[in-house]
Amino acid sequence: MDIKNMRNVIVSLSLVFGLLFTVSGIIEIIIGLYSILGFKIELPLFVGDVFGGLALLAVGIAYFLGVKKAVDRDIKAVSYLFTASIIGLGIGVIAFLILISDAIGFLLGFEDWADWGFFNDLTVYLVLGMLAIIPYRIAKIISSSTT
User: Fold this and answer.
1) What's the CA gap between 4 and 69, in Å, rounded?
2) Separation CA 125–CA 87 (nearest Å)
3) pLDDT tens digits, residue range 74-110?
4) Which residues contact 88 (CB under 8 A, 6 or more apart)?
5) Where is the protein found, in the record's own terms?
6) 3-state DSSP helix/strand/coil percent for the chain, to nearest 5?
7) Are 1 and 140 in contact (CB under 8 A)?
8) What pTM value is reported for the model?
9) Which helix (DSSP H) or strand (DSSP E) does residue 66 occupy?
10) How far is the C-alpha of 71 from the C-alpha of 68, rounded, in Å?
């Protein structure tokens, strides 16, 4: 399988996930900035972390750079898809570890976690991190079939 034949797949995946990560990052940054200014905005899945939003934005930009490479028919397009997916997975793993640690605190009966629930830790980081498995697996298949 040649990278030129997979161009549409790479462009589509990179565009979709680039938009998901970029829009989520921008929303996260906006909510975080408003909370710094004293305004409280609550959206499901979003916690208002400015630096987390910047991380999501960086992953989205990496996906978009992959789109540019794929449109130019450059073999490096798979690398951008692969790298952005790995970073997205890393963000998801960190969110999952936070969920696990909070669950342990709840199960051990710690006072700070008395009112904890699973949906308290279900964040955009966890959702996007788990979704990043899709382009990761596809990029892995593409890279193994082009060698």
Assistant:
1) 11
2) 11
3) 878 888 999 999 999 999 999 999 999 999 999 998 8
4) 17, 21, 59, 128, 129, 131, 132, 136
5) Cell membrane
6) 75, 0, 25
7) no
8) 0.89
9) helix 50-71
10) 5
